[in-house]
Amino acid sequence: MAVPAFLALIVNGTGLLGERWGSSVGGMALGFALTIPGYALHRFGAGDVKFAAMLGLFLGAERGFEMVLGASILMGVTALALLALRRQLQARFPAAPMLSAAFVVEMLWGPLLLR
């Protein structure tokens, strides 16, 4: 995912979704920075962190932040549902489905908060 995104930035000056350099790289940095604490706490896998960074690269800084926020809400709801069903929260679940769902919502209806 990174190769075509960076090639588009180099050749066109905009990302695959039309974001400028600063916004695209800022979105990638935000996706990384907001998910790396989860990796440090052994709640996210390294692939989830890289996936969030790449989705942030596509969306840009503002929409990338909204995407990570939406995915965090989805992960919280999933954790609460697992807690209610199992009475304990020992299970780990992948973040990629929630990141993907938040990405789709952001693509279809975003930006939601930052207008």
Output the keywords.
115 residues; mainly alpha
Could you describe the largest sheet, including whether it forms a barrel? none
Our measurement of the CA-to-CA distance between the termini, rounded to an integer number of angstroms, reads 27 Å
Helix content: over 70%
DSSP strand count:
0
Mean pLDDT: 88
Helix/strand/pairing category: mainly alpha
Instruction: Using the CA coordinates, give the radius of gyration.
Output: 15 Å
Number of domains: 1
Walk me through the structure.
34% of the residues are buried. The chain is mainly alpha-helical and 115 residues long. The protein is elongated, with a radius of gyration of 15 Å. The chain starts with a helix and ends in a 6-residue tail after the last helix. The chain has one domain. It has helices spanning 2-12, 21-40, 46-59, 61-86, 96-109. α2 (21-40) runs antiparallel to α3, α2 packs parallel to α4 (61-86) and α3 (46-59) packs antiparallel against α4. 74% of the residues lie in helices and 0% in strands.
